[in-house]
Amino acid sequence: MARIVFDLDGTLIDSLPDIHAIANAVLAEERAEPLSLEEARGFVGKGAAVFVARMRAARGLADADQERLHAGFVGRYDKAVGRTHPYPGAVAALESLRATGHRLGLCTNKPMSPTRAVLDHLDLARFFDSVLGGDSLAAKKPDPAPLHAVFAALGNGPMIYVGDSEVDAETAVRAGVAFLLFTQGYRKTPVAELPHAAAFEQFDALPGLVAGLLDQSVTA
Known about the structure:
Number of helices: 9
CATH topology of the largest domain: Rossmann fold
Order of helices and strands: EEHHHHEHEHEHEHEEH
Number of domains: 2
CATH class of the largest domain: Alpha Beta
Strand order of the largest sheet: 5-4-1-6-7-8
Shape: elongated
Radius of gyration: 17 Å
Distance between the termini: 17 Å
């Protein structure tokens, strides 16, 4: 059986509405213009600190405000779960993969505390034997160290990474693992321009793609 590690935001869950709301709550305190949903989408991917830095730059707020704004953002993050939901079919796919005997992990740039909060809220924690957040190690994706750490915690077996973004694709390449690309997340680059073993837009296709990769590894 395989070790399968997932990204979280934009892959298993659509958390953008909650992220958008807390960003605009922070900006409202600064009397700054709110972000559009598409602006917020473009800032997601490299963790909360990078999101805040991009948000701050977009609204002309000073570099010196970064720490304070980041604290305000993160302080709201744990409770930002009410608008977040799994993508259609994601839970059923996780159930199928677990039932088949695969070991599942999670590697996200989202800080660990809000990661745990949203996993608990959506009853997703039960699927994962190892979870690493963006503040769990010194390095974040696309550095491959967090992904390597999650795979190591899952034991032995073929390695597959599932994500939605440019960051995830680069992480997989740098880690030297097979990458399955979910195309309905927060990606900005055309699918054809991202390295991937296979792409999918519906989660009911994922178990079959995993089986196909494993068949290829056996016959290679």
